[in-house]
Here is the input.
Amino acid sequence: MSTATLSSSDDHSHAMHVDNRWWITKYVFSTDHKVIGIQFLISTLIMMLIGGLLALAIRWQLAFPWSQMPWVSAEVFAETGGQISPEFYTMLFTMHATVMIFLVVIPILAGAFGNFLIPLMIGAPDMAFPRLNMMSYWFMWPAAICFGLSFFYEGGPAAGWTSYPVLAAVYEAAPGSGFAQTLWLLGVTFVGFSSMMGSINYMTTIINMRAPGMTLFRMPLTVWGMFITAVLQAFALPVLTAAGLMLVADRELGTCFFVPGGLVINNAEPTVGGGQPLLWQHLFWFYSHPAVYIMLLPAMGMISDMLACMCRKPVFGYRPMIYSMSTIAGLGFIVWGHHMFISGMNPALGMTFMVATIMIALPSAIKVFNWIGTIWGGHLQFNTVTLNSVSFVTMFIVGGLSGIFMAAVPVDIYIHDTYFIVAHFHYVLFGATLFGIFAAIHFWFPKMFGRMMNDKLGQIHFVLTFIGLNGTFFPMHMLGIAGMPRRYADPYLHEYLEHLLPLNQFMTYSAILMGLAQFILIYNFFGSMIWGKKAPKNPWNANGLEWEAPSPPPHGNFEKTPNVYRGPYEYSSPDRPEEDYWPQAEE
Amino acid sequence: MIIRGDWLYPEIESYFYAVFVISGKCFVYRLMRKISLRLAIPLCLSLAVLLSGCESVESEFVYSEETNKLFPEAAEAVKQSLLRAFGTPAQPRIPAFMPVDRGGIPGEVVKVSDDRKQSQLKLESSSNGETDIEINPGQPVEFLFDPEEAFDFAAEAIEQGKPNPFDPLSELRVVNFDSETGLLTVDKKLPEIELIDAGLQIAINPNSKLEQGRELYNQHCMHCHGVSGDGNGPTAKTMTPRPRDYRKGIFKFTSTGPQDKVSTADLKHIIVEGIPGTYMASFKMLADEELDLIVEYVKYLTLRGVAEQKLDVEVGIDFSQSALDDELADIKDAAEKQKVIEEFRADWEEFLKGDYREIDQFGLLDVADEWEQIKGEGNVLLPSVPRTDPQGPSAADPSKSSVENGRLLYLGKTAQCAACHGEAGKGDGFQTRQIQKKPDGSEYEQPGLYDTWGNPTKPRDLTQDIYRGGRRPIDIYRRIYAGIKGSPMPVFGGKGLTDEQIWDIVNYVMTIPYE
Amino acid sequence: MKRLCWFLFFLIWPVLALIVSAFTPRWNWGFPGDGVSDSPIGAEIDHLFYLILIICVIVFIGTQIALLYAIWTASGRPKEKRAWHSHGNHKLELIWTIIPGAILLFIAFYQMRVWAEFRIDSASPEKAQTNIVAEVSARQFEWRIRYPEPGKKLEKKPQPGDMYSVNELHIPAGTPVRIYLRSLDVQHSFFLPTLRVKQDAVPGLVIPVWFEAKKPGEYPLVCAELCGWGHYKMGAKLIAHPPEEYEQYMKKLHQEQYDDGYAKKK
Here is the structure.
């Protein structure tokens, strides 16, 4: 099959300028990796707005518990005077996590940027399996529909994004654990299919379709990040998909993989049993811990590329960067147990998982040092891309360091499932990854749409987001240390948490600021498509192969297959005195 | 670019323009010039969207099914009566004679003096030595007339064709209070009512505890028990058993006798201890005062429901929709129909002017009388003999041990426990497979037992070691003696079984989980 | 100017973060209560927390200074001077692999004793294994507790003389005690914030947990694992009595539990 597809994509490159496809195959059911990438990008940006609104709703409840929630109150909770119900809150944070993880961060990194950049960066005319690629995008929509529909069944899925059984496995366990939970699990399965198709495609493309001269160690770190991510996904995802289907079977077919016997829930008949809830946790985290790196490694790669270009300087320690990414991926498979330190699994395992987890901080540290080394002695220019990239590094430092607290088992006894962990993963996922994404949007936008984004608006967006982000997430460390557990609709019910209300209100104000700031990005993104300055072929004077293609690249990408002569980071090379960059494809 | 389009009204345009020109050197103006229209439009749009979410809604009490079954105008009158007596969730109130601790600051009128717009009352309360009482401007003031005197006074006025003389008092508020002199200024001139005189009791901010209770109730209870206490909150939809509907005034697990009302102590006990085996959790984390406030609010919702029921019954005899429908059933002619309806309406008008006013007033007084025992501990049910030692001889039949005799009684014909709870106590007696009858005589579609609210219910599985009403011997004694109100569990005490026999059954039941 | 602004921007936030963190205990946003743990093992956990905190703060300051310095110099580099063309430095890479690696390994191995003390029988105090006070069963949404009859041992299965309470766990103070943790429906987590103790209650498992309250008093007990809509409502109290009072309380509880109401009649 692969050969057939390969030859067909060769045909594409010959027919590059005779592009008279029907508009549906051109823009909707397109097999062109760039169109699919942009489809992914725009879909995920819309999803990001939805996820962000859900987050604001959560913050509203925490700052002004049980008071009227704007929008929601008048429609959904008219009879209670605008006061939300606790299961609605449960649904809010479940869906916030779901949308952000499964429909924003994973697809925007792998789906949008992976799709758009991989073939361009390795000098390929398209992906190895263009139709599979199209399927990968269109499988995201059933997932989105499943998630969306689950809102409307019995209060939505209410078992958290981790959907631990028995809560998620037994219909009676929660008002929102009815059919909505099944839909939710199906949604996750569809996302799994989508990612799986993507990852197979990326691996094949990167291994098979590199341009002549593009050896593995001449590939940009973005491609390396995507490659390692694809490998991670390919090995971890089947476990989640299988586990998800097992849970669906538990719910719908009466199997009891995860449900022990004799539990009486909501006065239903006692459960039949024979299962073990811990099994789900092992299976779930076997995927979901690597998923954390799926949500980070591509951003790490892109940041390396952008920092190098913006500092006019080679990446410091190109190979150590690759090795550390690989180490993160490798170790990522044997650290899932750190989510389960207090779950009641064998305590001896806690020790081994702790050592592995703490050691995973090492490659991350190496990467941070290398990024600092990359900036060191460069020619730094302050534009939106640089600002977002630099703040990626500083936020990642915070997120990385706070991870050590949780990796240390005894400390984790206390801070497990408190707001400390919420602070930690938001610093990594929002602070690091999302800033990486913002930087990447600004950096590759000219290649995608042939126009530049407005830099001033970008900077305003950056400043507001940065302030809002730290105002929202930094105090979460304190909430965690004060012992405020996650997923509480009303923490102030407990006397020892009452004094945290003002802090939570401050966080909510910050979050609202951050939320409003995203309108600037939306405006800038869509406005620049129409009104943006026309972009030249290589606006950043960058080295990568993608800048050889016209902006935006036509169907088939390159006029002729480029030849690669050197690595991607030959900036300010003394061997080329006339320019401070040296494109990979230039002799 | 400055925002300057085709305004509908040129003068407004010129006005705006003038403001802009005047502020020409100020920052806003410069900003306006800088901000291009294409940024301003999405900005304004998103602002509009943001503001559109700030619509506010207020909760309302829902009325019972019986009220809605009344002749529409009768239903409206009942609703108005309830509104007058009990207010809304935002402004809860209850007549002072009801057995609810509704809060408020008491006082006694010493002297009344008027000026043109306001009245001044000299109060006694400040001399009581309570220094921490706070009377703030804006708080409502209520006169505690004797209900019957007030009724007569109002009736007299209305018969003479005057408006109700008490109407101006309904919105009376504090303007000022001088705690030194005890002078209370109210915001309106008091009407000429001879009842307002020295010695009259008044209450300032009379429903303060209900308001506090409402806050707590909304936070902790409302999402299951509903705004009106109908057990129909948003969370309740999938619960088994359903949360309690207070409005019938029936509470299952009480410490009082078979015919007695629930007591305040019982309500608090349930909130503190929860009901094992249901979603009613224990609320021990709340402070004692908070629990008291919640209990008072629950009592308020209960009495409101009971009063509604009372009115429905009194009015519903003649003026239900079904009564009208019965009259109309045989009439075919449209004009005649209309005539019957008109007559019906005229009857209602007459009733509304005459009897209804009495029902409205004295019905509430009746409710207050009937529910007097809700206060405090209530009418506590206690056994006449101490519990028999389970392994020792039975007091009822000394030839057997207590547990043995209890077992025989459990299986026997007098008590017939096994008919519902099953021979092994698993709650699977034959009655759970029979078709049962509804209170109105018709039959339920599905076999099994139902409670007063029409929800399916199961006899307790006694092997589970879960006792919803509490697991002390006295708790189980009370369940058998007084039955479980609102459920098919009947009353055994006083007629069917002696106290000695009940203790034998208690002793047997308590051994079932360990068999 | 622009360069200075951005430099200050990236400078201010770590400084602010450090200041806010430093004032956290004073503003009472830190550990609950007065910031001192109420149990011996909690004190050890706090010690480990602060140790990691100190290491992290040092690393944080170091990396932020390095980053800021890099930003400052790199943004001010004269136009005519080209960027430093370097692909990396093998020695540096080795240094910043080995040193953090050693620190991380130290952190990892330094933690093990406390974990073993908390979770592994052979390393925990002897009394923690023998002094079994209650069985705590979590359910939606409360804690149901079963104590043995005074003078008897807690059996795995309920016994006729057992005593029950809800949302109140009574223990003797000043001595390690052990409870058996169960769940009657979904997963919960037994969390004593001021004692720094947490353990999930997993349906189908009975998990022993030990802890010790140093002083008599009331401590919050909450649920830390999502268990449904009422997750936040699972607030309970841990009540530590002085040992002699504890005996008395248990006797009183037994009396109340087997009350037949006749005494009140008289």
Chain B touches chain C through 30 residues (CB under 8 Å).
